[in-house]
Predict the 3D structure of the following.
Amino acid sequence: MSFDYTPILPAHVPAPAARWTGFPEYNFVGGHIDDATVPVDDLRAAIDRAMVREGSNLATYYLQSGPQGYRPCREFVASKLKTYCGIDTTADDILLTSGSLQAMDLINKLLLEKGDTVIVEESNYGGAFSKLRALGVNMVSIPLDDQGMRMDALEAALDDLVAKGIKPKYIFGIITVHNPTGTILPLDRRHKMIELAKKHGVPIFEDECYSDIVWSNERPPALRALDDTGIVIHIGTFSKTVGPALRVGYINADWSVLSRLIAMKSDAGSGALEQMMLSEYCPDNFDAHVKRCNAVLEGKLDALIQSLDENFGAAVHYQKPPGGIFLWVKLPEGVKTSRLAEVAATQGVAVNPGPEWSLGKDSDDWIRICYANPPIEKIWAGVAKLADICHAEFGVPEFSGNIRR
């Protein structure tokens, strides 16, 4: 008989996780990328070169680069932020983290206490919502349209909070290639958001996890690039370009903020080999790699859209995003995606139901589909199966994917 820890666990400990049994046959969840785009041979060569040159530095914490992370990797991040985001920064203003999730946790730990208020986009990364709920933080949600967060609604929300005597701790936004909608906030709205943040003295927490994945390879400057006061804290990651399992993210902020985040990062440093490998691979290869990835991903998105059109017809609604790895899809009236996800999971189809990604009243009408990892033939087969399940469970679409019209 094993010892029962349950009686001595603190009340806040979550329910136990189920054992992992592998990915479902049709896996449209998570933030996985395309297997074939991982540059395996180039990464192997990169880590070999890095280890030959300075592998002995593994004998010390931080690779003799200090607690902000391996300096050559920080130097590349700084150059990438300049090239891709328009942010004029240096390696000294970069903190490397164990993925962008650790970056998010550090910023929340620095700024938030139970009972605080933050402003978020109405639809957003589900993990951001769950982290804020666990901290006991109040969320004020701002609706989006086909160009991202609405500035009129943001202004009204800030004014309303002032009238109530509440000052939010930050405005959180996935500004460039939004998750889940894929929108890119236009330049005029970016300027307006910064103007409102300055007026109310509220920091902006800018998450740019997907911003390198833009089909046209063109995007507006990051909010951090447009800010001259340090009111924007910017995070990003290599997870959506080189590989999620690398767990390399970063924070870019003024030293007044970064120094406090470093003081709280008590893990003795994020993974060293990954940072060494990226710093060796990226300077000569990152730009071309991103363009290759974008071409592959846009092709998969086109396949997903074609399969939805063929299997659901006009019964579904979506806006083709200008980048990213997700499609935000509104299903036919009467289909509740929380129920659909449960039933589909028993038949090998995994999708994210809308309530996990949106605080909106109609969230259960939507699903988020990650199309980056499944091969195109799996996308077609998985969408057809999803249509079969919708037809059997809800009676829509009128014809399922495998019924002759």
